[in-house]
TrEMBL record:
This is Hexosyltransferase. InterPro entries: DUF4094 (IPR025298), Glyco_trans_31 (IPR002659). Its cofactor is Mn(2+). It comes from the Eukaryota. The lineage of its organism: Eukaryota, Viridiplantae, Streptophyta, Embryophyta, Tracheophyta. Belongs to the glycosyltransferase 31 family. It is a single-pass type II membrane protein. GO terms for biological process: arabinogalactan protein metabolic process.
Length: 337
């Protein structure tokens, strides 16, 4: 019986190492599984971090992307060059074909359009001019055949259609020597803007080499002026007149007061410009005023306003003493009336 019990206890003792091995195997498996799970979580966290960083980092450009960027840069460069060329074309007075075709009512190339400023109360002055240096009737039409157009330049009354406007319309029906600026209000405070309206209207109506602004307080030697313009014919960018400069009046209430006096620096002196009595612009400069009239700044006086427009252009300043109406020269073109 004892020998049988000993024989039965051997298998029980032999199974203990197997149980220990199984136990340690389970522990090892749990350890390895835990590490693998932890490694998987770490990889997941790292993957998320890398993904977020990849969104923040600049994208690696492919060859196609680089070509696209270079193409955009080239297009931008060409747009800038085109804008510069357009600005240059505007400064030289180029217009679209439709405006050029409608530029002259007769279709004939003229030497000059002379605009004589006038007002509602200046009928007597106009009659004096018509009887002196300014042709009238058939003589005026013959002068136009020579290539010179002369018109009295006037705007409209603040009260459109009133007796002032009707009187001008009636006078023009009789004399046919007015250029009426429909968009301009004829008033002393609006005088600096009159140059823009005159040049814009005239350059669209007539195709001429020169556009001349004349005050109504001077007498002209018309043939001398025509001869002067004939010798300058074909000269682009010509800004002709009796050039002057002077002090800017900053005290309100004084004659020739300039509200924008502070823009002229500490010296308070005007830039060089043609005097108001007689201003001559070549065609391309007049076209520039027409194209840019909406954005051109006007000052207190029309001559300084025109001079400011010319400063930013490639204009040729021609100071001709014969156009100084107060000059003592015998060959002067104009004189004070």
């Amino acid at each position: 019986m004892k020998s049988e019990r000993r024989g039965r206890s051997k298998p029980l003792q032999a199974s203990k190492p197997s149980l220990l091995m199984a136990f340690f195997s389970c522990l090892a498996w749990l350890y390895v599984a835990g590490r693998l799970w932890q490694d998987a979580e770490n990889r997941k966290v790292l993957t998320n971090l890398l993904y977020k960083n990849s969104l923040q980092r600049p994208k690696i450009l492919t060859v196609e992307d680089k070509l696209t960027v270079l193409g955009c840069r080239d297009l931008e460069r060409r747009i800038v060059e085109a804008e510069m060329e357009l600005t240059l074309a505007k400064s030289q007075g180029y217009l679209n074909k439709q405006l050029q075709q409608s530029g002259s009512s007769s279709g004939k190339k003229l030497l000059a359009v002379i605009g004589v400023y006038t007002g509602f109360g200046s009928r007597l002055k106009r009659n004096v001019f018509r009887g002196s240096w300014m042709p009238k009737g058939d003589a005026l039409r013959k002068l136009e055949e020579r290539g010179v157009v002369i018109r009295f330049v006037i705007g409209r009354s603040a009260n459109r259609g009133d007796s002032l406007d009707r009187n001008i319309n009636e006078e023009n029906r009789s004399t046919k020597d007015f250029l009426i600026l429909e968009g301009h209000e004829e008033a002393q405070e609006e005088l600096p803007k009159k140059a823009k309206f005159f040049l814009s209207t005239a350059v669209q109506k007539w195709d001429a080499d020169f556009f001349v602004k004349v005050d109504d307080n001077i007498d002209l030697d018309l043939e001398a002026l025509i001869g002067l313009l004939e010798r300058r014919r074909g000269q682009d960018g010509a800004y002709i007149g009796c050039m002057k400069s002077g002090d800017v009046i900053s005290e309100e209430g004084k004659p020739w007061y300039e509200p924008d006096w502070w823009k002229f620096g500490d010296e308070k002196s005007y830039f060089r410009h043609a005097g108001s009595a007689l201003i001559i612009l070549s065609k391309n400069l007049a076209q520039y005023v027409n194209i840019n009239s909406a954005s051109l700044k006007t000052y207190a006086h029309d001559d300084t306003s025109v001079g400011s427009w010319m400063m930013g252009l490639q204009a040729t300043y021609i100071d001709d003493n014969r156009l100084c109406c107060s000059s003592i020269r015998q060959d002067k073109v104009c004189s004070l009336a």
